[in-house]
Amino acid sequence: MNAALKRCFCYLCAPIEALAHGGALMRTQKPSGGPVPEGTAMRWKWIFIIAVGSLLTGGLSTPTIQAHDNSVDDQLLKIGSFSQALTTRAALVRFIWDTDWSEIRRRGPDLIADHYAPTADDSLPNDLSNLDRIEKLVSTISEPLEGGSTLVHSSTAFVLHPRNRNGRVVVVHHGHGCRFDGKGDQYNLDETVRQLLRSGFAVVAMRMPLFQSPSQCGHDTDDSSHDELIQRRLQTGSPLKFFLEPVARVLNYLESAHSEYHEFNMVGLSGGGWTTTIYSALDPRIVQSFPVAGSIPLYLRGHGYNDDLEQYYAPFYAIAGYKDMYLLGSLETGRRQTQILNRGDDCCFGERPR
């Protein structure tokens, strides 16, 4: 993705400030077609979209060729009621894991190292004020393949515990980025981490599979790309679990081992924005979510976008399109999602020529 796209992460200052002070970033209203169907408790929400240059709504036009797979049409919401939303969420969980969410809630990290001293390859930000200590959490997911072998991927999360805390946690997901220290980029995630920690938040620094450190950036011993990973044939569930389960395991651990934290939030950039969008749709524990340059609905994407199969994997998005994901990410009372996009993004999610 280009540098212009990444600059939109600078626009997180206002959302983070609102997050720090509990500001309301969402508002609710009934659908324009009439009242909410009787017998449901559906809360229809506007999902704020911030774009560099102008509001993205009204700036995008539908391309003549739909992204990748015309069998998936996500122009319209599939979800029409609160009960249908819960059924859809359960179907997404079942597709990914072939089990219920209650089972995923019981899983935790495989390795826990408290009072962890970071190494250079961890590439965490330095000069962190209000830092009490760091916990390193490693989640290893091992899945049998249809051919009889086993696929293994590990994900490392760093929990930065504040000395003076406000009781709230923010997962900061760097997606395809391998550095959190700001070296060699202009994405400002290091300053985002510093600001959140300074404001009393516990910060969880995470990355996507295959992008776990500068020395393992885009590959590991089993896979060399996300497209390759997504096309693996597991005996149960989908390879999407390698992208999403590490977040669940971290939250499960913090919920059970750290009663001082009472709220979970999430922000992510690029592939981390995609992870924030999908994970927030699955786990209602995420109260406020801020996906940055992470997705737009498939029907708004041009035919030139051909990266990251997890973004458009047809069997998954046939269950729920992106608009449904945005709704699920802000479904329950008190939950909010703010989507941040760059109108000038020439890679993936910007304005298309009319």
Helix-strand blueprint:
Layout: H1 3-6, H2 13-20, E1 48-52, H3 82-97, H4 101-104, E2 111-113, E3 131-144, E4 150-162, E5 168-173, H5 189-198, E6 202-206, E7 211-213, E8 216-217, H6 226-230, H7 241-257, E9 263-269, H8 271-282, E10 286-292, H9 314-317, H10 322-328, E11 336-342
Parallel strand pairs: 1-11, 5-6, 5-9, 9-10, 10-11
Antiparallel strand pairs: 2-3, 3-4, 4-6, 7-8
Helix pairs in contact: 8-10
What does this structure look like?
- Helix 8 packs across helix 10 (322-328).
- The protein has a 9-stranded mixed sheet with strand order 1-11-10-9-5-6-4-3-2, with helices on both faces. It has a two-stranded antiparallel sheet with strand order 7-8.
- 43% of the residues are buried.
- Helices cover 25% and strands 20% of the residues.
- Residues 1-9, 23-47 and 49-67 have low confidence and may be disordered.
- It is of the alpha/beta class and 354 residues long.
- It has helices at 3-6, 13-20, 82-97, 101-104, 189-198, 226-230, 241-257, 271-282, 314-317, 322-328, and strands at 48-52, 111-113, 131-144, 150-162, 168-173, 202-206, 211-213, 216-217, 263-269, 286-292, 336-342.
- A hairpin with a 5-residue loop joins strand 3 and strand 4 (150-162).
- The radius of gyration is 19 Å and the shape is globular.
- It has one domain (3-342): 3-Layer(aba) Sandwich (Rossmann fold).
